Amino acid sequence: IDENTPTQTLDSRTVEAVGKYIKDGRAKRIVVMTGAGISTSAGIPDFRSPGTGLYANLQRLKLPYAEAVFTLDYFRNNPLPFYILAQELYPGQFRPTITHAFINLLNEKGILLKLFTQNIDCLEREAGVPDDKIIEAHGSFANQSCIDCKGSFPKDLMLKAINEKSVPHCLHKSPSGEPCDGLVKPNIVFFGEQLPGAFFDNRDLPSTADLIIVMGTSLSVAPFSQLPSFAHDGTPRVLINSEAVGGLGSRTDDVLMLGDCDGQVRKLAEACGWLEELEAMWAMT
Ligand code: CNA
Question: Is the pLDDT at 24 greater than 80, yes or no?
Fold first, then answer.
């Protein structure tokens, strides 16, 4: 769309107009969609940023191709690279960013309908966003199970394995008493695996939202990448990312805020009149 195309909902395609829309109380059901880019400033590399992303730095794991580390077939034969990475990414070592705190602020204001995250670092939860507001579309490290019998595996033994960069094996027995001994993996979604049921149960929510905020994702993994398209035409969609992605910008009320997440989130908070409150909330996180 060119700059002369009239908007349907916002006064203009600017951050100021989004701030006004929120301040006027017209955003009461906000759906936020996040990816690895909101956590890079916390010190967790994303997948695809050139030079710094995990995919650019996986030579040391000697993978045949970068995505192999999150692929079930490869994991079955060679699970160690995953466990080396898992130790580096495991939750508890990183502090939420001001972008994570902003999602929590939306919730405290009572206007966060749902957060869909692709991240497995649990930083949104650590920033205070309650469990029932979060859809972990690609799973998390919260639980783990056997890739063969699907049986669960104790958390303490998983932590031990992660710390030792060793590979845990299933403790369950078959009905005939044979040990299963299958490989155990955290319930994060690998390529080719089904997303959690909660994702499918909630994926129509963007169509009931009055504002969509997409942050820090290349929107290159389906079906997550389809979520913004479920919003109604005329529902404002804000993209906060270092690059334009996923066709955002193609609708009358799309607002592109290109740049680093934390800086752009501060601008959005400022436009809402919340910057001091946000900084104070983040300082307590
Ligand atoms: P991605 O494909 O690596 O894309 C990240 C996007 O964020 C890119 O468009 C970057 O340009 C952009 N970006 C990076 N840093 C910033 C920044 N500071 N400010 C603004 N934009 C930035 O990652 P996606 O999340 O889109 O891909 C989906 C995968 C990545 C999911 O399955 C995740 O599980 C997986 N992942 C998660 C984590 C984590 O939990 N923190 C880390 C690495 C990968």
Answer: yes
138 is known as an active-site residue: yes
Collect all residues with Cβ–Cβ distance below 8 Å to 165 and sequence separation of at least 6.
Answer: 80, 83, 84, 87
Q: Is the ipTM of this complex over 0.90?
A: yes
The DSSP element (H or E) to which 158 belongs, if any, is helix 155-164
Mutate to test the pocket of ligand 1, among 217, 221, 264 (most ligand atoms within 8 A of CB): 217
Secondary element (H or E) of residue 155: helix 155-164
Task: Give the three-state DSSP class for 285.
Answer: coil
Amino acid at 19: G
d(CA 52, CA 24): 40
Residue with tokens 């319930």: 187
Closest CA to 137 of 15, 230, 248, 32: 32
Question: What pTM was computed for the model?
Answer: 0.94
Packing angle between helix 275-283 and helix 98-108, nearest 10 degrees?
A: 110
The single-letter code of the amino acid at 17 is A
CB 47 within 8 A of CB 67: no
Which of 38, 47, 67, 261 has the most ligand 1 atoms within 8 A of CB, as the residue to mutate?
Answer: 47
Whether the bond into 223 is cis, omega within 30 of 0? yes
The single-letter code of the amino acid at 212 is I
Which tokens sit at 277? 């409150």
Cα(115)–Cα(276) distance, integer angstroms:
23
Please state at what angle helix 275-283 crosses helix 261-272, rounded to 10 degrees: 130
Nearest to 39 by CA among 137, 127, 158: 127
* Token couple for 24: 């006027």
The dihedrals phi and psi of 255, each to the nearest 5 degrees, come to -125, 120
User: Using CA atoms, how far apart are residues 124 and 101, in angstroms rounded to an integer?
Assistant: 8
SS3 state of residue 60: helix
The pLDDT value given to residue 50: 85
